[in-house]
Amino acid sequence: MTTSGLHSLPDETLEQAIQWSIRMTYNRPDPDTCKAFEMWLSSDESHQLAWTRLQGLSSRFDDVPAAMGRQALEKLPQARLRRRQMLNLLALCGISATAVWTARDAAPWQRLLADYSTRVGEHRRWTLSDGSVLELNTDTAVRLHFSADARVIELLRGELYLTSGADSASARHRPLRVINPFGSFEALGTRFGVRQYPHSCKLEVNEGAVQLLSLGGKGAIAQAGETWAMLHNGVQRLAARAQEPAWRDGLLIARSMPLGTLVGELGRYRNGYLGCDPRITQRIISGNFNLDDMDATLAFIAQTHDLRLQTLTRYWMRFSV
């Protein structure tokens, strides 16, 4: 969505939605707050519309470079959001008003800049002009920088899977690279997945090879079956063997996974808060879980593992004993 969708809503409704989103997303709301939110949400259809649109814009943002923030803000005037609303939106995304309005930097709106993106809980596939197949997992955004000399896919956030194309229409060889805040991955006739974390990027190679080059100048060549981590200062091979990503088939596969880790992974596919009682975070869970029907999946986990699923609202759920 774009901010033009927000502009069509009444100012008061938008202001309330922003405030509720801050309270529900970045705090641990108590039961009274959750009940008040549910009452506000159900009291008017415009409240539900504002909430849905806002979550699509603002959920799970990370810090981004200043240049990206400036590019995003340059696209905003047509939305004509009032200054106070814009400041609150930026606060919702974890960005200080001073930083944004004095330097117009660090506005983490990757979807406004993306050529391809997915919403929370969505996974999609595209065939690019060079024949490569690009697949995006939940809450992911990428930009394409294709020129006569190179094919570059910029991972702004999230997780992708790439099957490199032959680029047969090009008169010259154009290297295919995935760039991220930590460096680049160059495809050497391959299929591979890349997932971006706050402080690293993980590479899993399923076919062919991938050349890694970190911003620190250190590199390596990853072969099929290998998993690597890229950090600011270098690259590191991991012990885990590369797996075909199950999310491409709408699944999350857990093998002897602590409940706390599983909840964290499932939380990537739904808006709002999903947590668990600290006393049961180390309980071991195994299974194949459906990502396309999260409510059914959470209910199934609770039922099969003798857990209680506390549901204060559809945006606040917690496993307990």
TrEMBL record:
Pfam families with a match to the protein in the record: DUF4880 (PF16220), FecR (PF04773)
Occurrences of domain FecR protein (ranges): 115-211
Annotated FecR N-terminal domain residues: 15-56
The protein, known as: Iron dicitrate transport regulator FecR
GO-annotated molecular function: sigma factor antagonist activity
Organism the protein comes from: Pseudomonas cremoricolorata
InterPro entries: FecR, FecR_N, Ferrdict_sens_TM
